[in-house]
Amino acid sequence: MTTQPVAAFEPPYVMAVFSNVRTADDTGFDELNDRMEEIVEAIPGYLGYESARTPGGLGITVAYFRDHEALTVWRENLQHQAAMKRGRADWYESYTLHVATVERSHGFVRNG
Question: The ABM domain covers which part of the protein (predicted)?
Fold first, then answer.
């Protein structure tokens, strides 16, 4: 897992914010999550993601896409749909998904 934020991209672009609380049993989660990363990384227009989990169990993943069409390809991928169904059945106590168009973006990196 990276410790650097995803670079700022030239707006507009799209972000999907997935906030969740997982169940105590996450058997199989890491393997399926790795497969989902492989799939989404191959989608033209996918820009990257950031993910964090609090000690209390709240997880937030923000995925970035060049446009809504790229996000739609991800949402409609059959393996992703099966993973979402498994997540609701086995791994998530609750979640929310927020999709937004980014209008402004900038970043900072300390030199040295």
Answer: 21-86
Distance CA 102, CA 96 (A): 19
Report which DSSP code applies to 45.
Answer: T
> Whole-angstrom Cα distance, residue 62 to residue 41?
14
What domains can you pick out in the chain, each with its CATH number?
Answer: 13-102 (3.30.70.100)
Question: CA–CA separation, 63 vs 10, rounded Å?
Answer: 15
CA dist 103 and 13 (Å) reads 7
Taking only the tens place, the pLDDT of each residue in 54-87 is: 999 999 999 999 999 999 999 999 999 999 999 9
